[in-house]
Amino acid sequence: MSDLDQADSTLTPHPLLALFHNAADGRFPSADGQVSILPALPRGLECSVAFTGHAVIATALSSGEVQSQEPDGYGGSLAPDFLRYLAGQGGRIGTLDAVLVARGASGSPRLPQRLDVEDHPRVRHARELRTGVRVHGDERGLVTLADGLAGRRELSVELDEPGGGSSNNSSSGLGRSLLRDALTLVPAGEPVFAAVSPGNARSLRAFLAAGFVPLGSEVIIRPERTSAG
Hints:
By secondary structure, the protein is an alpha+beta fold.
């Protein structure tokens, strides 16, 4: 039985989830320049996650195969050539995202659930990578809450902008207010994570202003291999 099949059959939390929760509590892996190798994720996904001075790679490849490529915890685990090695020639490499975390807010939920936006691109993207997707929102935009990478609770937003366009955020402050209201959908004090492209500075500023703090960075991979190697 493969690591993926075993994870699906026993419903045991993936070990990467504990690392994310520890980091949310301020307990990070040692900044030793090393790389930790974990089993592949469910749904055919793999990933490379970088904390300060330490990398974590979830893959079906053996530790020996991965270490033969000489990745390191100082950025080498996210180098393009190494990510292509993990993915294989036909595999899909996702975008590089900053990993952020915040805590659920106390009080009554401030955003109603939305059942009329199943075909929205933000919702379709969430369902492609995540499970248990719930959609909330109002006239400002949409919020998705779901079980994401390694089973962590993830949040994403999409604003409805004038003229029919949409964006991950808005300079008017609507993004910040929507994010703050979204935190009332999470039980008070419990961590909720977000993955934000560093190049989307407007969105990144809004998340930081809403109380999210950075933990590291990550790339999600859908590998394609002709053999175990």
